[in-house]
Amino acid sequence: MEVITNMYMEFYEKVEGLARAIGVTTSTVKKYYLLFEEYGYNFKRNQQGQLLFSQDDINLFKELIVLKNEKGMTVPKAVKEIIKDKVMTDTTDITDITATTEDITVISKHVTTVMSELDELKQLVKNQNEIIEKQQEDFKKQFLKQEAYIKDSLEQRDKTLITTLREVQESQKEMATSLSKDQAKKKWWQIWLD
Question: Where is the DUF3967 domain (predicted)?
């Protein structure tokens, strides 16, 4: 099933789809639409010139099928009867074209507005990304600064600990040396008394 839609969501059938919809052959559809056009009814065509039938057009053909089967009715008489109030004049076509042009103008304005808003949003996103990148860079610098501070503090602590340990060891050596000198000054029997 081949269905064509326009921007207002109207559905259009081609000749084959219309033939299926009303239960006749494509050659019968051709005979019918030529009669309609002969009596002044115009059907829409696409850019390639192919006929397009709206739901209203399909209903006309269904009405024709019913009316032509009445007693004393011929296909041409039925077509005349159906379209006497529905003939599309050239003025109507011009109005449709004007309305379509106005619709296109309105849509173009909306598209322009949307594109402008889209550009503004792109700029906003770009600005936000720049701010985020700057914040990340600042956080990275702060982190490296804190990391360097912690490293320096640990190195200073380690140096202080090593210096303190050496001083304690030196102090212990001096005390041991001093004790040993004191003991050497004592007589051998005084050592045992202590």
Answer: 154-192
**3 state SS for 111-138:** HHHHHHHHHHHHHHHHHHHHHHHHHHHH
DSSP, collapsed to helix, strand or coil, labels residue 154 as: helix
On the 0-12 / 13-18 / 19+ scale of CB atoms within 10 A, 37 is middle
Residue-wise pLDDT for 2-52, tens only, equals 555 555 567 889 999 999 999 999 999 999 999 999 988 989 998 888 899
The pTM assigned to this predicted structure is: 0.42
Task: Please state, in angstroms and rounded to a whole number, the distance separating the CA atoms of residues 62 and 58.
Answer: 6
Q: For the chain, count helices (H), then strands (E).
A: 6, 4
* Position 68 in a domain: yes
Residue 136, in any domain of the structure: no
Whole domain around residue 56: which residue ranges? Answer: 3-88
β-strand partners of 44: 52
